[in-house]
Amino acid sequence: METIYLPQLLKMPERTMVLQLCHRIAGLDTLTPVRGLFTIRHGGNFIELTLVADTIITLVCDRCLQTFNHRLSVDTSEIIYLREAPKNPSYPPEREITWEDLCETVSPDSEFLIEDWIYQQLCLALPTRNICSNDCSIPSYVPTDSDIDHRWSALAQLKHLLPE
Ligand SMILES: [Zn+2]
Fold it and tell me: Residue 36: left (phi > 0), alpha (psi -120 to 50), or beta?
């Protein structure tokens, strides 16, 4: 997917670029391409990003261990401030952390990696707990003889010697 050189955005109508998505996103194994709309707008000292998209992804159920398909939908936006990175950053042992320090920033004349940002948004939308359905159950487990660790056999023999 393309990257966008941020100063170029200033020359676009409304300083905005809209991208119709029907893409595979590197690093994310989805069943269907990611479909939707991505918008990036230059706001002078910030960029505003929005993403409305969905795709289908195969997950493994945390409870029954079966695979299942999950619709991953994203409707999100983010503002990233444009700030020149200091040429020679100095880090005094102690300094006050300002609100700005905690915001994500990019350099005003850098390239913005669209696919990378979309990848992050989709990852953030992944469920924290993968459950295929409300009524699935834990697979029953019956230990077989081969599951017994034979290193403990000496202990098992000792058990026979103990009085009941
Ligand atoms: Zn399940």
Answer: left
